[in-house]
Amino acid sequence: xxxxxxxxxxxxxxxxxxxxxxxxxxxxxxxxxxxxxxxxxxxxxxxxxxxxxxxxxxxxxxxxxxxxxxxxxxxxxxxxxxxxxxxxxxxxxxxxxxxxxxxxxxxxxxxxxxxxxxxxxxxxxxxxxxxxxxxxxxxxxxxxxxxxxxxxxxxxxxxxxxxxxxxxxxxxxxxxxxxxxxxxxxxxxxxxxxxxxxxxxxxxxxxxxxxxxxxxxxx
Amino acid sequence: xxxxxxxxxxxxxxxxxxxxxxxxxxxxxxxxxxxxxxxxxxxxxxxxxxxxxxxxxxxxxxxxxxxxxxxxxxxxxxxxxxxxxxxxxxxxxxxxxxxxxxxxxxxxxxxxxxxxxxxxxxxxxxxxxxxxxxxxxxxxxxxxxxxxxxxxxxxxxxxxxxxxxxxxxxxxxxxxxxxxxxxxxxxxxxxxxxxxxxxxxxxxxxxxxxxxxxxxxxxxxxxxxxxxxxxxxxxxxxxxxxxxxxxxxx
Lengths: 219, 250
Ligand SMILES: Nc1ncnc2c1ncn2[C@@H]1O[C@H](COP(=O)(O)OP(=O)(O)OP(=O)(O)O)[C@@H](O)[C@H]1O
Ligand SMILES: [Mg+2]
Fold this sequence. Notes:
Oligomer: heterodimer
Distance between the termini of chain B: 32 Å
Bound molecules: adenosine-5'-triphosphate, magnesium ion
Helix content of chain A: over 70%
Number of strands of chain A: 0
Helix content of chain B: 25-40%
Order of helices and strands of chain B: EEEHEEEHEHHHEHEHEEHH
Structural class of chain A: mainly alpha
Shape of chain B: globular
Structural class of chain B: alpha/beta
Radius of gyration of chain B: 18 Å
């Protein structure tokens, strides 16, 4: 069985994993929506910026992004401004995971919005509604149902990917059991981690299934 | 109420409207007929900025709504102005375009609610009256997907009327419907016409055009070929192209 110290360590690791996941998901949804709106906007500059964002942050490994935010940023800012900006580990993790999640979700949102019949936008416009009013009251609410499954998917990816924070000196769930395994030479600790990951991904899967059903009401 | 002056519209190299001149006065019911691809829908869509004209002038309610030359604005018209002019025009689409995530009543209420920001109770009572007018008061809490095509189109008419437009534009409102559902939609349109609504109706329903149309316009290849009162056009067309079109469809 687990000692009290081991239990605390697993608990803290789990907490970190959950914290990063929740933060990155919420912030990633907001940022991702802004970028998606930029991608479909007629404004060429917004369009180019959001395209560039997705291109860079979806096209490079998350681990690399973590390294840049945590290790390279201080060096870069030292060169540029003469004083280093060093982010605490947790802030760096929040930032990197948000940036990365937003890039993926932006593409999910863009595809979802563009899958809505063009006639809907025209109907809104013909009724005297502005582009933004039509977008937020007509188009996006309709796209939500189509966005739920890929968002659930992204959330599950995210919770598993949080184990990458081990590389910037943080103790998440996986790293804490890994340490126990190394210290004791016993591998069953990994089962605890597997169980906890499965527990969370099962909840996510179940919750998103429920939400999807709820949104299917009008079809 | 509406005036088009020397309106041209091209999609790339394809010229779809060629020197359209048209004036519609209060209370008129103008029926637009013509073969597929002749530019009937495009003409309607240019009125409420769903398409931008390439050249020419568009007036709505004696106000300039668009003035362009070779795809460039001659007169810059603000987005707010365009929106305000759009509310003078109600549009009914061939494919209804109801909002599927909203109930029938919400569909009718949404535009007044977010564009006009009127008082909720007032909007609701107007919406219920309109649903009553189109004979669908009992369906107010249904989602559009639960309605027949004819019912959906009647909701779409009520939705357009909720903004109190001065002119109604209909783009083949019955061509997506099963034949047995056409009548109920035409009935509602007749009722509107009798109440004095100014209407422009693109349609293949010659019976409707004869009965309620005050003027018929025949379009072909982007031009208005012939116009006149329904009787003259249907019984006595002057242009060969009108004759051959009417022969084909009647
Ligand atoms: N967005 C667009 N882009 C390119 N071409 C278009 C577009 N909209 C319409 N067209 C073309 O313009 C021409 C006129 O189309 P329009 O829809 O106005 O005709 P219509 O008279 O309404 O025909 P129908 O009776 O089939 O509805 C057609 O050749 C059509 O292919
Ligand atoms: Mg058409």
